[in-house]
Amino acid sequence: MKAVIMPKFGFTQEESEILEWKVKNGDRVEQGDPLAVVSTDKVSMEVEAPEDGIVAGIRHPQGTVVRVTDVIAYILQPGESLPAEADAPVVEQPAPQVAPAASEPLSQPTPVAARLAADLGVNLAEIPGTGPGGRITRADVERYATRHAPDKLRAVPAARRLARELGVNLNELTGSGPRRRIQSEDVRRAAQERVSAASHAAVTEAGSRPVSFREVPLQGMRKTIATNMLRSWQSIPTIHLEVDVDMEASLALLLMAQQRAGERRVSLTAVVVKAVAWALRQHPRLNAHLEGEVLREWHEVHLGVAVALEDGLIVPVLHHPDRKGILQIAEELNDLASRARQNQLRLTDLQDATFTISNLGMFGIDRFTAIINPPQVAILAVSAIKKTFVANETGQPVLHSVMNLRLSADHRAIDGAIAARFLADLRKALETPSEMLLWQ
């Protein structure tokens, strides 16, 4: 028997919503088969079967928000049975306590029946159970609700929570789920329709010219980014150091890599990633996480590379770039960026980042400051290359390609001198590439 838990997709993630079950109890699956689709507000991911077996004990219905590491189902082998704790009710909030009449003891409901009763707001004490030993089943609750509360509002817990966050009146919605139960998607659709309505031109009270506007609620990925960035900005004492790097040698190296790659695309980001990975190996204090009062310096380098999406930002992770050549790094970066924009990232693509690079050079940005993504202790902002006159060996001005790098570092973990030495070595790696930057 193997328990299937809600995976943790990020260092600060606490819960995910089950968007869809792709299996049902009793289905046979093989290791790696998709069991469910879950959302972290940033990306939708599939939860895979950890081993071959039979699906059993699915504990949460579609639309439920589940804490990470909580059990969501089990994989059984022939002859195995569910553990005793699998029969315990699992609900988002404590179900209302109903005091049964002294003369008529309350029948124990099944977990699904208990959740459904709490969702519909019906009194379990009034429902006769038809299950084994008089146990109240889901069918009993549905039958009672149909007869005694046909107009009772039906909504999954996640939809109720989302409606409170977005200010949507559930009484105005028609659900798209079973028996017209309101789903999270119904709430999101209603919120979007409200935004569209609010975007029409409005006229000021004074009767002056029309004022057009559009209200965009912070939700989904945008809300997650807002929450994380605010927490980082308010809680991390950050120092900022920057250097201008002569990129002539790196551009020459990039040209050689592009010639070797043929039709495969190789961007300057691949060169920067290789140099950053090398510099982190020399300065492990920046390749670290700060959690509470413990600084954990990682022995392996895993670089998060920010990718801009239509409605936000996601940071897929390139693992072990210090062990790879530029061509392999470029190929993996292209693959990650493509799948990120198609919402096809896997769990492993988002895990274990030890340091992050944010590159806005392709947008022509001369310099900017990136915000640290905790528990990481540093992030590097990479800007556009621009032509600048610099002095050559004889002191004469020559036109070179120069790029600004700006490091944001958590001053609790990193002193200015440590950050400065890291930037100095990174600049050296980019200005005078050596074997550490060559393809493998």
Structure in a nutshell:
Helices cover 28% and strands 24% of the residues.
What is the percentage of strand-forming residues? 15-25%
Helix content range: 25-40%
The CATH class assignment of the largest domain is: Alpha Beta
> First CA to last CA: what distance?
43 Å
- Pick out the low-confidence regions: 88-105, 201-206
Number of separate domains: 3
Total strands: 20
Helix vs. strand class: alpha+beta
- Count of helical stretches: 9
Chart the SSEs and their pairings.
Layout: E1 2-5, E2 15-21, E3 28-29, E4 34-39, E5 44-48, E6 53-56, E7 65-67, E8 71-76, H1 111-120, H2 138-148, H3 157-166, H4 184-198, E9 202-203, E10 210-211, H5 220-235, E11 238-246, H6 248-261, H7 268-282, E12 288-291, E13 294-297, E14 302-305, E15 307-309, E16 312-314, E17 317-319, H8 326-341, E18 355-359, E19 378-391, E20 397-410, H9 416-431
Parallel strand pairs: 14-18, 18-19
Antiparallel strand pairs: 1-8, 2-4, 2-7, 3-6, 4-5, 6-8, 9-10, 11-20, 12-13, 14-17, 15-16, 19-20
Helix pairs in contact: 1-2, 3-4, 7-8, 7-9
Structure explained in plain terms:
32% of the residues are buried. It contains nine helices and 20 strands. The model is unreliable at 88-105 and 201-206 (pLDDT under 50). A six-stranded mixed beta sheet has the order 11-20-19-18-14-17, covered by helices on one side. It is elongated, with a radius of gyration of 28 Å. By secondary structure, the chain is an alpha+beta fold. It folds into three domains: 2-87, Beta Barrel (OB fold (Dihydrolipoamide Acetyltransferase, E2P)), CATH 2.40.50.100; 163-217, no CATH class; 224-437, Chloramphenicol Acetyltransferase (2-Layer Sandwich). Helix content is 28%, strand content 24%.
